[in-house]
Design brief:
- The protein is mainly alpha-helical.
- Helices cover 74% and strands 3% of the residues.
- Strands 2-1-3 form a three-stranded mixed beta sheet.
- α1 packs antiparallel against α2, α1 runs parallel beside α10 and α2 packs antiparallel against α4.
- The chain is globular, with a radius of gyration of 21 Å.
Amino acid sequence: MDGVNHSVVSEFVFLGLAHSWEIQLVLLVFSSVLYVASMTGNILIVFSVTIDPHLRSPMYFLLANLSFIDLGACSVASPKMIYDLYRKRKVISFGGCIAQIFFIHVIGGVEMVLLIAMAFDRYVAICKPLHYLTIMSPRMCILFTAAAWAVGIAHSLFQLAFIVNLPFCGPNVMDSFYCDLPRLLRLACTDTYRLQFMVTANSGFICVGSFLILLISYIFIVFTVWKHSSGSSSKALSTLSAHVIVVFLFFGPTMFVYTWPHPNSQMDKFLAFSDAVLTPFLNPVIYTFRNKEMKAAMKRVCKNLVVYRKIS
């Protein structure tokens, strides 16, 4: 293939998650159930926040954006992985591989900024409650969302710039179930040591930096809640605990994959599987079960849908 990057490789072969058919069957059922549950849960959250007048606060606006991006997170790699569990030979085209990498990094960048925005929202709500509606205005929420997408797209394009002119002439076997940048760089027909270091430094710096910012902000908020003990402190701590759990679920696998110099292949696969399948499912579960208003809104939406179907 005499393309822009002078590659002769037209497709990549995945080794997948497991070689045993029994294990693949278990993973097929497990992944399919989680994928359907993730899509259903996140769609229901977006739908509830959009139509329910009780969920008009900035916190729920940001939560709906997080659920929307989680819809993308569980759709970038999971459908292809589930489909490949049926097949003996698991392949992806060169263009499909590049597209996967692009959307994975866009979604990752957007989610990082959204989590920071949600932490800022909780900081203002708890530490400066009288100025909450002034600071977290609709304009501010839209700016946060626009900044999240701008950072995500810029980060992804910056990552893809590393591989635009790289030659790929074989081998084309990738010990994974989806395309990721570090593994793709190892298949290039040239020395990519410096590029691998730059990718690790770039993604690792962003992940670790964002994680530390979130961790420090949540510690500061917790101390503020303890100082001003009141009847609403338990509710604030419950909301914060949900945010902290989601942060650890998202950043844990990502930091390991992009900062560990020589990750163990099976551990790397497990963390990637967790990030692609488990995290998008657990996010709506955590926010739903720890939020009475969200549970009530989702019940109202479900009842309205049932009534609408009976009428129609």
